[in-house]
Amino acid sequence: MGSNTGKPQNPERREFLSQLSVAATGSMLAFGRTSVAASGGSADVGSSAPPLATIRLGEHRVARLIAGSNPTSGYSYMGPIMDRHMKEYFTDDRIAEFLGRCEREGVNAHQGSRPERMGPILRTLRQRGSRIKFICLHAGGQGKMPVPKVVTETQPIAIVHHGGVTDRLFREGKSNEVHDFVKRVKDAGVLAGVSAHNPDCIKRIADEGWKVDLFMTCFYYLTRTKDELEKMPPVVTAQIGYSFFASDPLAMTEVARQVDQPCLGFKILAAGRMCDKAYKVEAAFKFAFEHLKPTDGVIVGMYPRFDDQISQNVGYTRKFAALRDT
């Protein structure tokens, strides 16, 4: 981000820095007072916190709060400067430190991508005694790491087809490519899932009876075409690069409640856009757990550079996700 601390010299830059401040310090704001780095956190494992409510994914028990990977991968949904800010912070060592801290707080699973990078990090954690479970988001397709190699490199409990690619392939009439991916994952011996931003994709898969073990369900339909956007009412949660329509979470959670498979809701905080006030963060967690099934969970990305987002997210999960077997 550079070291210049002078005040912005024009209104456009002042407005941009204001948005960036919300993203950096409010990207899941009100998350305690101490960052992982400042608290001297390490990648040592061993949970010291009371257990979180869990759900079942196949034979695995997973906390209803799962650590997401967009911040660790440098995907802020706030623009290229914020992306660089996250990439600068999340070195391999800090990712391991972050996941170790999550595990100590009771978050026992990480949804990530980029298996070529995550493989060595996960091996390091496991050598230190970590039992964190890995759910790999994978786009499939030519040039991507083959599914058997993903399994070898990362030892995931599940591999899930990438949501943006799912939406595009369904729109292009190529849903068979997603279905073939699911079959390859099943053949590799791990749980198979599909992610989508468009709830119609989830409904269609369920109606057609695909043998999927789980879904990842985005609370916001971010892949609408231009024509679709023009038909939407002008009511958005926030508009910074993407349109986050206020009606979207209700539409997706209604579908999640109708399917039999566990659903992992993601972008419950509108990629940080609902984080400028603590009450909004709390309300988002409350909404998610009230509108998903008891057998569902949430995936939340965290950026603990300035605040202890892990503890706060865990706190909201304890508050709104009942501690019971599902």
In summary, what is this structure?
The chain is an alpha/beta fold and 326 residues long.
Considering the chains and any ligands shown, give keywords for the structure:
326 residues, alpha/beta, 12 strands, globular, disordered N terminus
SSE topology sketch:
Layout: H1 11-26, E1 54-57, E2 60-63, E3 65-67, H2 70-73, H3 80-89, H4 92-104, E4 109-112, H5 115-127, E5 133-138, H6 147-154, E6 158-161, H7 163-171, H8 175-187, E7 191-196, H9 199-208, E8 214-218, H10 226-230, E9 236-239, E10 243-245, H11 248-258, E11 263-266, H12 278-291, E12 297-300, H13 309-320
Parallel strand pairs: 3-12, 4-5, 5-6, 6-7, 7-8, 8-11, 11-12
Antiparallel strand pairs: 1-2, 9-10
Helix pairs in contact: 4-5, 9-11, 12-13
SS strand fraction: 15-25%
Mean pLDDT across all amino acids: 84
Biggest β-sheet description: 8 strands, parallel
Spatial strand order of the main sheet: 3-12-11-8-7-6-5-4
How would you characterize this protein structure?
This protein has 326 residues and is an alpha/beta fold. The protein has one domain: Phosphoenolpyruvate-binding domains (TIM Barrel, Alpha-Beta Barrel), CATH 3.20.20.60. Helix content is 42%, strand content 16%. The protein has 13 helices and 12 strands. The strands form 3 sheets. The protein has an 8-stranded parallel β-sheet. A hairpin with a 2-residue loop joins strand 1 and strand 2 (60-63). Helix 4 (92-104) crosses helix 5 (115-127) and helix 9 runs parallel beside helix 11. It starts with 10 loop residues before the first helix and ends in a 6-residue tail after the last helix. The model is unreliable at 1-43 (pLDDT under 50).
